[in-house]
Amino acid sequence: MSILKNLKTSIKEIIKQAGYELDDITFVSSSRPDLGDFQINDAMRLSKIYNDNPKNIAENIVSYLKKDSRFININIAGPGFINLTLSPYFLQTSLNQILDDFEVNIDKEAPKKIFMDYGGANIAKTLHVGHLRSANIGEAVKRLAKYLGLEVISDVHFGDIGRQSGMVISEIKRRYPNLEYFNNDFKGNYEDIEFTITPEELGEIYPTASIAAKNDEKRMEEVVEITKDLEEGHKAYNALWEKIKETSIKDIKNVYKDINTTFDLYEGESTCYPYIPEVIEYLEKNNYLIESEDAKIIDVSEETDNSPMPPLVVIKSNGATLYATRELATMYSRIKRYNLDEIWYFADFRQSLYFEQVFRAVKKSSLVPNNLILGFYGFGTMNGKDGKPFKTRDGSVMSLKELINILQDETQKRLNKEMVEEDKREETAKKIAIAALKYADLIPYRETDYIFDPEKFVSLDGKTGPYLLYSTIRMKSLLSKANTKKYAIKRFKDNTDRNPALLLLKLPQVLTKCLEQKSLNELTDYIYKLTSSYNTFYNENKVITEEDNDLKESWLALTALVYNTNIEILNILGIDIPEKM
Fold it and tell me: Residues with Cβ < 8 Å from 495, sequence gap 6 or more?
């Protein structure tokens, strides 16, 4: 149990000793730092229960709190808000505990097995800026969940089947009509056909095919036919598609690796195919599928709906399956293969209705256990300075590679070339660029759209990834120069060193809240406040040359605590730290 959580439990017991009982108490950071570190806001609530003036209740509680050596400067503000300050000895002792064992101040979650579905890249398509948020938010939440003790299985869930496969194959057929894949008389082994395609070619092929199909009805018919053949097991098309997938997945993995995103599973929609017949048979046998205009649907409406809820279409009128069909089979397969407590999905917020339909369908049909918790966590869009989705100068969708290159170029302009060796500048610039990108993307609350400004977010000033990296590297350098193996907090000088010390105790509350919200905005704000508070202290005090040995040792201990905390948080955010910058 973390220090503040343990303290809250103690205060609840003190309030009980004063004669009052509550299931939980409100113990929060004080809204008036000049009056205290923390605030207890329960006197008004207790006054309704015990029919007494809230100020009388507050005064009674304060009389008991004053007996506890952990608190000083206990006072009452307004109608009954109790403010209190942590005693120097208690704060000092608490920080030394964390210095000895960082885990002592982390609140672990109850054991659970979570399946996380995020990423969602489409095979044969270039990863663009729209793919960033799912990968970045999902990865950070996964790391946070593991950090807090949950067992997590993550899957990228590639879009590896569907209309885009027909598009790409139709375009390749036009460009390379003599390939044996398109020769109906070919009797050899399709796996032996020598054909290679580059990620750059694939990045150009799909948009070309898509535009052509939209403008040519016959071309679209061909795409639909190829897609249908592929799903029904056409050997030549499947062999070609496997080669395309191999090239595309390798490229996608490399881009994900650039932004420090990895998955336990790299499965796609097609992985669920063996389960589709079983799912459809179950739904039909138990009368969950309803005929509607020659299609088969599941009615997911509920009496409590305030607006019409469209049904989930499972089988189209031509007998073909849909994305939703594959979603049901995928969920079913995951339950069969893993003993799960929850499944979390991260996708564009505009897919919320779709996921609501799917969740209702699997619950209504008992396709998944009733106690399985399903969560959809949508996110907003990254926009340019014009407030519209981020694009290239010519108005096309910007690839993630291109965005990284833009940030890397901006970063290289600002590198301290005297500090970073020439052979490490490119690697260092890339790490800083990735930090700028990932941190900026995690600053807003998950559901919020935000403006991405490359020049602003690579700056060393303000709430940016580079600012955090630079400050953390400077802390490491200071500790290295001090060359002290062991140190401890012995005393505080004033608020400049006490403020960051107090913030260190609040980390577990922030981590828990971020996990509850499946959003990292509170953590990005916390690390910025902690780092800024430490920098204020650093700029006003000479740590290395301080003549008071107790203060010097305390400041080195404080530096180590903030440095270690930053390392832990940056790792959760998926941000690497260069040696120098």
Answer: none
Nearest to 277 by CA among 237, 324, 230, 325: 325
The DSSP output letter for 304 is T
Show Cβ contacts of residue 523 under 8 Å, excluding neighbours closer than 6 positions.
144, 442, 510, 511, 514, 569, 572, 573
The first and second tokens of residue 198, run together, are 């580059």
Amino acid at 205: I
Q: List, for residues 452-505, the tens digit of each pLDDT value.
A: 988 889 998 999 999 999 999 999 999 999 988 889 999 999 999 999 999 999
**CA dist., res. 251 & res. 266, Å (int):** 13
Asked if residue 122 lies in contact with residue 166, where contact means CB atoms within 8 angstroms, the answer is no
Strand-by-strand arrangement of the 290-292 sheet: 290-292, 295-298, 312-315
The alpha-helical segments, DSSP class H, found in 290-424 are 323-337, 352-364, 400-414
pLDDT digits (tens, 9 = 90+) for 47-60: 999 999 999 999 99
Q: Indicate the DSSP class of residue 131.
A: G
Among 538, 547, 541, 405, which residue's Cα sits nearest to residue 473?
Answer: 538
Contact 290, 296 (CB under 8 A): yes
Q: How many residues in total does the chain contain?
A: 581
